[in-house]
Amino acid sequence: MSETLRGGCLCAAVRYEITQALQTIIACHCTHCQKASGSGASHNAIVPAAAFRLVSGGTKCYTDTAESGNRLYRHFCGDCGSPIFSQREHAPHVMVLKVGSLDDSNAMKLAMNIWTRSARPWMPIDPDVTNYPENRPAS
Fold it and tell me: For residue 115, what is the domain's CATH number?
């Protein structure tokens, strides 16, 4: 990839770079993501931790326990509260980037919805993408 992706929080205290192409979005409709995002779903892209670099600022972290019992570390800006990324306790080499924090995500496409059983009735779910009532199957 010749172009570095950049993003950050609303107040610009946290800035980051990603050195890997991102093409797909996964929308999570679990109740924890609804609360953490303040919306009907969290829109995410999977990023290898090695491809992510904080350029300025730092994040605060909230430790969440998923329905599975696994811990999820939710990173956000301590000043404006913008969610930036999360990491699973058992997969620290992978980051779940909040695509709304990217400066430009226009080339990305929604690939799947997960946890649709807890989706809000007012949140549209595209039937033309892959949808799972709970988490996606392990790859």
Answer: 2.170.150.70
